[in-house]
# Entry
Amino acid sequence: MAASDTDRAKAQTPTERAEALTEAEMQALEEQFDPEMRFRPLLPTLSWATAIALFVLSCYHFYTAGYGIPQATTHRGTHLAFTLALIFLSFVVWGERKEPKSTILSPLGLPIYDWVLLVAGIVSAMYVPWIFTDLAMRVGNPFPIDVFMGTVLIVVLLEATRRSMGWPLPVIALLFIAYAYFGQSMPGVLVHPGADWKGIVNHLYLTSQGIYGTALGVISTYVFHFVLFGVLATRIGLGQLFIDLASALAGRFAGGPAKVSVVSSAMLGSISGSSIANTVTTGSLTIPAMKRIGYPPHFAAAVEAASSTGGQITPPVMGAVAFLMIEYLGVPLTTILTAALVPAFMHFFGVLVQVHLEARRRGLRGLTKDELPVAWTVFKAGWLTTLPLFVLVAILLSGKTPYLAAFWGIASCLLVLVLQNLIRHDLKTAATETVRETWDGFVVGAKYSLSVTAAAALVGVIIGVVTLTGVGFKIAYMVTGVAATWAENLSATLAFLPFDVMSVEGLTLLFTLIMTAIVCVLMGCGIPTTANYLIMIAVAAPILGLLGVQPIVAHFFVFYYGVLADITPPVALAAYAAAGIADANAFKAGNTAFRLGMGKALVPFVFVFSPSMLLVVDGFTWSEFFLATLGAMAGIWMLSAAFANWLFAPLRGYERVLLSISAILLVAPDLYATLFGVALVLPALLRQLPVLMSGEAPPVQSADS
# Structure
């Protein structure tokens, strides 16, 4: 979803143009670090056929978004059939993507086994919609042909997901299927009566609890449309406008390019939601600029990665998860977007503070006037590109369905595209350009949806096993039991203190959250955010529900920790992509990115204990909101200062320790803890106050200090 080379060059200085990546280089980086983008080369005939199928899929969704979604099973089956066929056309079975040759065993350059899987995927995915009128009579007592078709679809789906995003998710799905089948052999509380293969296939294939369930429904009804909108909005120049505006607004301050990275990633993330795509698109401009003014390569890469992962938590799009939440929670989209506002702000605030302190510590400059675009000039030149976003947001806020909002957003993008081409070209050339760019946008938009659709359908298998066996509540029972034991032991250990640090119930919740967070991050190491979220709400949400956590709070908690995996080593894909641009040590960039993203790690704990931070929860109070939000901001600032070894001037060793402790107390949503945290900050603040009051620049620390 990168901007074109021509558009990108308009707002760059000669030095920046020499350093910035070309579109081909950015695409190569995306493919290197994002398995979902590794499409195979095709011979011309099959390439055209694949492109036509992708274009038709986008047209189908664009039409149904505006004129009515078909019956659910038909709609989901049609989308899945298209997707499975296109995956076997677009992804190789394994190894390198070699140039294809047409032979007897590879008609049109596609291996015969891929043709078999392609046809099997289409037939097995469309079989349920075809028998829809008889489906009610067959659920619970499937015919042999039903079991056969269901088995075929499960096998094809496992292979399609493996090709498009790797082994982790298919392996997890296989383990869940094995758990359903061998239930009687499971240990302890995990034991269950088990199910035969006929019963498993019946539940996963013929009911709405499995493959054709909510996850696939949300992808086919909402997410596809917003992916397409993001691609088109970027292609008409909205992404480049965001980058240019961010440069104009933030570039002049200390460490300017790093602050541009944070602001532009926040703005671009509002229409994208892909961590790696955001990293490559904005990082190709900001990372060279950060290095040029003095940021170390690994820090420049980390800033871009940490900022870009915020795109998945930034309204109004929030990747796919916002639309999954409205289905699973049964609340309006406006409720989800409102709840996301403050936590998203806290993430970018945390990155921005650390960027600022690092710039002060190193004595780094901002961009000069000659290096900066003028905000008004930028907006005047590109204001038309903002029309689709305003249309989208206005319709969302009006209470209309998200897919109708996406329809008008996409239509607005096409209108802007027509107007842009009419302004730049004569009528004939404008028509040709519009058709070509619409074609390209629709093809690319459909391509970007393939892996997420396969993942959602396969996650339906996992969710189906959870509902079939009740394993979610079994795991909840085990986790809360362990957490309660730990809480009681710690409470007994701290009994000598004259005050209670936290109640046993509070400690139980804390330990449960820690275990849940760790599992979310580990799962996210090999599974995309959407799939991670779907699995964790099936398994972890019941855990938090047993402890009284409101559903929307529990969903946001697992969502945030799933996103955090993109910058958590050893599989920090966004950080590794940024390191590729910066020519930096990937593991060092990942560690630094995790540190910069600590706001995303701290804030979920805050809003679990103080739900008012999410604004729309039951029992909301302004006093709790301000105490939690301001305390979290102060805590993030103090912890950032301790990491950077800089507040307003260099810190002493004991001051860094005090600031670290104060950060924990400030973040804790308790008035007395907050006041105690403020007291711990005072020694460092009072010692550095003369420096702040004098306005003189303190001595700059060396780059390695």
